[in-house]
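ENTRY TYPE: paired fold submission
RECORD: A
CONTENT: sequence, then structure tokens
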Amino acid sequence: MSDSCCQGSVDTHLLHTRQRRILAIVLAINATTFLMMIVAAMMSGSSALLSGALDNLGDALTYGLSFAVVGSSTTMKAKVALFKGVFIFAAALAVAAQIGWRLFHMETPIFEVMSIAAVINLLANTLCLALLYPYRQNDVNMSSVWECSRNDVFEGFAVITAALSVWVFGSGWPDILIALALLILFLQSASRVLRRAWRDYRPAATMS
């Protein structure tokens, strides 16, 4: 019995170590991608790229928080997941404000800059998703991280679609429409993260 308990402890420690290592890697990838995307968004004038950049910034921050609470109590993990949900919602509001501004200052983004940044962003997001896949159901902390990463891949494909549409139609409207679609995605993601975090937080808080 003692050996079995000790083995369980060791396995848990190894799991937490692996989680921290993966979170550190995806944090570095997202921080780097954010800098690239924000520069590309300013150079190209793309709302879709800016949406992606804000998403990467939010992910970098939430990965950092997730790293900090690996191995913590369920209550602490749920609290951090609640913060992540609120942050995603705040990012959605920022995207909405930028889209509103663009509607009154319409311009056609620079296709070449958009497309290069979009492809790099998608490759980086796909790598993060692959790294996080084995840990997606470990706990509420890793589940919310997985949610963010999965959204990143959708966002990557959406930005590529926006770049191609801008090139085909020679208009800024596809960029605006894709940014609106990403806004809906952010709001849905925030809702899912908040619901699960609150579901996990209530019983944990009652027991403590």
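RECORD: B
CONTENT: sequence, then structure tokens
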Amino acid sequence: MKDKKQDNEVYILGSETGKGGKKKIQSWKWILAVVCVLLILGSIFYYYSNKEQTPDYYFEPEETQQSISVSIVDTIQSSVENGYIEVLEEVVNDVPLLIYVPHKLTMSLALGMPDVTDPDILFATMAADIRRDNKQIVGDFVLAGKRLARGVAKKGFCAIENNKVTIGLGESTPLLQQVIDSKGSFFRQYPLVHNGELIENKPKNKSVRRALAVRNERIIMVESKQKESFHDFSQALIDVGVTDAIYLVGGDAYGWYYNKEHVRREFGEQLSDLPENISYIIWRNEE
């Protein structure tokens, strides 16, 4: 019909009307409109491509506005006189890191929140991820020889057998059955570094990162002092000499350690509504 506007015509509200009560935008205004649309689409694409992408099974406590890497001195003193955690600060490629080095300690796996008042726990940090929907542990999980969860959604793993800790990568490994038979422990996490090579991971968000790693044939824990992507954190681990590493729950995940002066320091944030299936790796004195 003659009164119908054409779908491909654009009009300016409030402009003077010409023949038929319509006035088309001049060609330069068309160009300006197209440029504006492209800028808007580009901004939307940039926003969503950089937006925190978190899988449904990825558990990491929400971050507070305060920097969670700042240690808080606690008044509780450890009764233990020999074991402790040494904390080193290193910066590589503008990525500041805290490196936690256990001294005279052995590592084990625990299910649930450890007793924060237990002076014999000299280092504790969250280990495996859990699903957001059913709050179950993600991937193979063995505690004292009992298999509590199955799956290989994450190919990195940590096996603890007879006080020996192995960090590896693979959908299948004989170590899984070995720790079951020997009453050991096992959990899975994102692989970060394997044999000195960087392993890419799908989540693209930035967060305070933590890793269980091997450097100079020694098991350590590494934490980023600021929010980092998986890629940048993994590369920083390689640059400081890490040969193998798997991820540990980062963000505001709560943990603590005792330094050489036997003063307890904390990181992260204690939450009152933590799922029951959270797991921790803990260090105690060598037996």
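NOTES ON RECORD B: The CA atoms of residues 79 and 186 lie 29 Å apart. The two ends are 92 Å apart (CA to CA).
STATUS: closed
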